[in-house]
Amino acid sequence: MIDLNVKGLLYLTRAITPLMVARKSGQIINVGSIAGKEVYANGNVYCATKHAVDALTRAMLIDLNPHGIKVGSVNPGMVETEFSVVRFKGDEERAKKVYEGLQPLTPLDVANAIGYMATLPPHVNISDLTILPTAQAAATVVKRG
User: Which member of 40, 46, 99, 116 is catalytic?
Assistant: First the structure.
C-alpha cells in the first residue's frame, strides 16, 4: 500500500511536473479515499497512505500554483471493486457482505467525476472532491436495506 499509494504518486508526479512547469500549464488529479479524510478500525496503513495522498495533494496545489498547474483529488467512499477481497485476504464471502443492502459506487462513477474535473474551463479547479454512494454518510456510517 505504501509503495503504490504514496511512493507511486510521488514518483509519477516527480516525472511529469517538470514538463508541466516548463509549459506553465497542466493538471494533476490524485485518487484519494474517504479513508484519507477520516480513520476507521483495522484500516491503519490504508488510512495513513490515503491521508498522505490528501496532504501531498494540498501541498502540490500550493507549490504548483505559481506555475499555473491545477491540482486536485477525488476521494471516493464505497466503490465495488476487488478492494474488499484483497482486504479480507481472498475471503470473497466476507467481501460480498461489505456491499450487502446498498448500492455502492462503481468505478465508472469515479471515472465520471475525474472526467468532470478534467474538462472544466482553465480558470476552474476542483481541489478536493469527496464522492459517496447515497447510502454512505461517513466511512463507517452506511444505511442498509
Answer: 46
